[in-house]
Every structure is written in structure tokens, then in C-alpha cells.
Design goal:
mainly alpha, de novo design (two linked rop proteins), about 80% helix
């Protein structure tokens, strides 16, 4: 009788441990998904700001069509990207295009003094800061998730749940080190 009680207690403890591990994995997976959604929200804000910024610059820098076209093209490719890696690559391309746009804008003192341009630039800088924070939070969440699905005993439950490692939101070293091109 005592042996049955001990076996029953062991089974209950094992079931509780499995439930806690399972719930921990679900929480970690949901945190990664939420962090990715937050990046998408910030990218969408930036996406919505860019046409206003481009239109403001167009009025002053009519002959800078190449830079404006690059920004538009980069913006479109970012919204078409579906995977973490493709979004990271498109985001890098857009960031570079925006740097070129601001570099061009520096050559137009009237544009720099334009209230609407300054407001849009400040809003974009705020969104860029939020994107950077969201990327960091996403990568921290991915690290936590990837660690959990690889360590014992979580890896056994993760295997049964068919959970796979998530990709980090990162850019290639080559892209990060490339200088911004400004052509006049």
C-alpha cells in the first residue's frame, strides 16, 4: 500500500514537472511571437512615415530622384519580406536608403528649416529607436526560447511539440559595414 502511494506521488510530481516545462515552452514561444509582432508594428509605423518624408524632400530636391527611388524601392521590399532574414535584409536596405535621403537633405538649407520635414525626421528617429529596442527584445526572447528547447529536460518536451530554433533578427557584417552612398 505504501509503495502504491509513493508511486502515485512520483507520478504526480512527474506530471507536474511536465506541465511546468510545457507551459514554460509555450510562454517562451509566445514571447518570441509577441516580440516579432512588436517589430512589425514599428516597421509599419516607419513604412507609413516614409511617403510623407519623401514627398516633403521631393519639393526641395527635385533632381535627387535616384535617392528617392531607392527609398521607395527599399520600403516596398520591406513590406514584401516574410521571413526574419528577408525582413532583416530589407530593413538594412531601407535604413541605408534613409541615411542617403537625410544626407541629401543636408544640402538643402530651406528643407532643413522646414517645420514639416523636421517633425517627420523627429518622428522617424523615434520610430528607429523603438525598432532598435524591439529588435533587441526579439533577439533576447529568441535566445531564451532557443536555450529552453535545447536544454534537458525541456528538449524532450520541445521535441514532442516539434519546436524548432528561431532565427535572430540580424544583419550581415558586410551590410553593416558598407558606407552610405550619396550621389549628386
Amino acid at each position: 500500500m505504501i509503495i502504491l502511494i509513493i508511486i502515485g506521488i512520483i507520478i504526480v510530481v512527474i506530471l507536474i514537472a511536465i506541465a511546468l516545462i510545457y507551459n514554460g515552452l509555450i510562454i517562451a514561444r509566445n514571447r518570441v511571437n509577441n516580440a516579432w509582432a512588436q517589430i512589425d508594428v514599428q516597421l509599419r509605423k516607419r513604412y507609413d512615415l516614409i511617403p510623407n518624408l519623401v514627398n516633403t524632400v521631393k519639393g526641395y530636391a527635385k533632381h535627387e530622384k535616384t535617392v528617392l527611388t531607392e527609398v521607395t524601392k527599399a520600403r516596398t521590399s520591406l513590406m514584401k519580406a516574410t521571413s526574419v532574414k528577408s525582413k532583416a535584409k530589407a530593413d538594412t536596405m531601407l535604413t541605408g536608403a534613409l541615411k542617403s535621403l537625410f544626407a541629401v537633405a543636408e544640402n538643402y538649407p530651406k528643407l532643413q528649416a522646414d517645420e514639416n520635414f523636421r517633425l517627420l525626421q523627429e518622428q522617424l528617429e523615434g520610430v528607429e529607436n523603438k525598432i532598435a529596442y524591439s529588435r533587441q527584445f526579439y533577439n533576447d526572447s529568441v535566445l531564451d526560447f532557443n536555450n529552453k528547447i535545447q536544454i534537458f529536460p525541456y528538449n524532450m518536451i520541445a521535441g514532442m511539440m516539434n519546436l524548432k530554433k528561431k532565427d535572430y533578427f540580424e544583419i550581415g557584417e558586410e551590410e553593416a559595414r558598407r558606407p552610405v552612398r550619396v550621389s549628386f
